[in-house]
Amino acid sequence: MTVTVAAVVFLLTYAVIASDRVDKTLTALAGGLAMILLQVIDQHEGLAAVDFNVIFLLAGMMIMASILRRTGFFQWLAIRASKVADGQPFRLLIVLSLLSAGLSAVLDNVTTVVLLAPVTLSIASILGISPIPFLVSEILASNIGGTATLIGDPPNILIGSASGLSFDAFLVNMGPAAVVVLLVFLATVRPLFRSGLSVAPEAREAVLALDENEVIADRRLLRVSLLVIGATLLGFLVHGALGYEPATVALAGATVLLLLSRLEVESVLREIEWPTLFFFIGLFILVEGVVHAGIIDAVASRLFDLTGGDATVTTIGLLWLSGIASGIVDNIPYTATMIPIVQDLGRAGLPIEPLWWSLALGACLGGNATIIGASANVVVANLAGRSGHPITFRAFLPYGLLVVAESLVIATGYLVLRYLL
Amino acid sequence: MVVRYHEHRDWVPGHGADDGCLARCDGVSGGGGRRRAGLVTSSLRLARNTTVEACQALLEIEPLLVSESADLTTVVRRAARQPATRLIGVTDDDGLLVGVIPVTRAAECIVGRVAPEALLVDVADDASAVHFSHTVSDRTAADVMLLPATIVPSATIGEAFRVMHRLRLGGLYIVDQAGRPSGYLDLLELAVVYVRALEEAGQAASGDDAPPEAGHAGAVSGHTAPEVSGQPEAPPASDPGA
User: Fold this and answer.
1) In 3D, which of A58, A95, A55, A63 has the Cα closest to residue A79?
2) What value of ipTM does the predicted structure carry?
């Protein structure tokens, strides 16, 4: 009976999240609470399942990004990008894609697009062209860039916390794959966005005439923010050696920056994306319900039987399953569900590290397949829609499928060559 | 959203329902404090019930009307010749008011075309990005105008203030029944009436029993900018011209 209740609550919650008709935070919280109230798990187990390493890592990064936003840094970057590109739209698209990928690796891809997309929209309006090619390429590049690090994409944050793999382990193992995927993406971007990227000479001149120094709102705060964020990134690189969790490093960075910024703490904390944090809290409780009911064990056992316990088949199968599933459902709940399955497969005797990389590559890169595949996609799509430039599911799909197909092929080769031969 | 007030108020300074209250208060025996309190209340109530028609020309701020197709450079040039008018009215070919443009918004659009980075600094989210896009791309009065916010002459200035406050506008266009602009009420004109009422209330509270109607009626019927300072017994009041 418990198994049935847990399965129904879980599938219902997933279906509602996928339908996008009810706020996903509310849905995840309701699903998690249902697991407790229907006595699938008791309240202590439910609350203990919340991974505060993930919550505080996200909160710490959000605080630092929120302070950095106040400095005008992202506007400065956008103007500099326009000038580096000499006001040429296609070059600008490449530069913004590189920026998007790079920032996603050091902040996270959702924060990156939240900060970069509005200024991209503004630059496109000065150029007098559609922002859609820029926004689509930023989505794709941010998901690729975010794949490279532990903090770059929410699935990686979840995997990092559950597996105990360090920031530098992610960088060393995921970074090369992400770089190759990004280079291939940039090589294929021209035919994808060839049309609609021409500007009038006077619009180009207007962009080149922009003074980037004018947009820096607070030079002192900018210096302090970059210094503290840089130190935090160094902290991530050595957190394993120092014995600190990534969340501790992120919270330390956020606290130091709050202290040095002299900003009103309440106003900064108000800008934390609380819905995202509560979405994670709800998911953790929800997934604990299906783990507790034994569903995850059963699925893992079935998968093990299906692949015959073959490491290569299981690892590559997990990569493609994750890539395809992440295009259909949000990759965060997908990853949260798959983590205990991977742990079970590891306990069954399969080499677990390739499985973690397989899950991470599949979930992060697969998020590019559709406009609902990853949080970054949804954030940009909402912004584009509200600004009168809707990116529809159908319009995004050809770009997404092509990029995911090439990404998964590259990832397959990478996993085989590096871990499975 | 078109906001129009057609509710007619027959209040005339010195002859309204509030006078009854004033008379009753006057009749209270042995109640000097209560009587003074009544005078204060009456003075403020009278001010709120002043009609738009009565106070619209206090500061002689003229309406400023442009056509829907007017280029924003033309709009700003005309606004510069008439700087006291903070809200520009936009009319269609039939002379009906179809929108309003706060002067700051028109000026911002011109700044956005010359030095967009000055506004780019405010772009932090989708709403501000959309606002920025409009600012740099809008070219005509029709592009930039807000929906018309109007009021009829017989409405009270209390009602006018509520509309201005809700829409965050510094003025309102007064329209006739057909929707054609017939005048302009600036927030400052409204404030001047209230400043006068506060001064009278202050006088009443301090025991100076000068009839509030007289001063008030003078303020609203004289159609000239009232003197709001220089009365030694009045409490400190902000300068409406500031």
Assistant:
1) A95
2) 0.72
CA distance A380 to A371: 9
Nearest to B239 by CA among B209, B198, B203, B181: B198
Residue B207, pLDDT > 80, answer: no
B136 closest CB neighbour out of A117, A125, A212:
A125
C-alpha dist (Å) from residue A158 to A281, B113, B127, B183 = 12, 46, 31, 64
CA distances from A122 to A85, A398, B124 (A): 16, 26, 10
User: Which are the contacts of B219, defined by CB distance < 8 A and separation ≥ 6?
Assistant: B55, B58, B192, B193, B196, B226
> What average pLDDT score do residues B43-63 get?
83
Mean pLDDT, chain A, integer = 92
Inform me whether the pLDDT recorded for B12 exceeds 50.
Answer: no
**Contacts for A223 with CB less than 8 Å, ≥ 6 apart:** none
Higher pLDDT, B149 or B185: B185
For B29-54, what is the mean pLDDT? 71
Phi, psi dihedral angles at B181 (to 5 degrees): -65, 130
Inter-chain contact B128–A118, Cβ cutoff 8 Å? yes
Asked if pLDDT for residue B209 goes beyond 60, the answer is no
Question: Is-above-0.80 flag for pTM?
Answer: no
Residue A145 to chain B, least CA–CA distance (Å): 22
Strand partners, B146: B100
- Count the helices and strands in chain B (H runs, E runs): 11, 6
Interchain CB contact of B224 with A (< 8 Å): no
Nearest chain B residue to A211 by CA distance is B117
Choose the most confident range, by mean pLDDT, from A92-96, B121-125, B193-197: A92-96
| Rounded Cα distance, A50 and A245, in Å | 16
Q: Can you list the alpha helix ranges (DSSP code H) found in A209-330?
A: 219-242, 246-261, 265-269, 274-292, 295-307, 311-328
Look at chain A and count its residues. Answer: 421
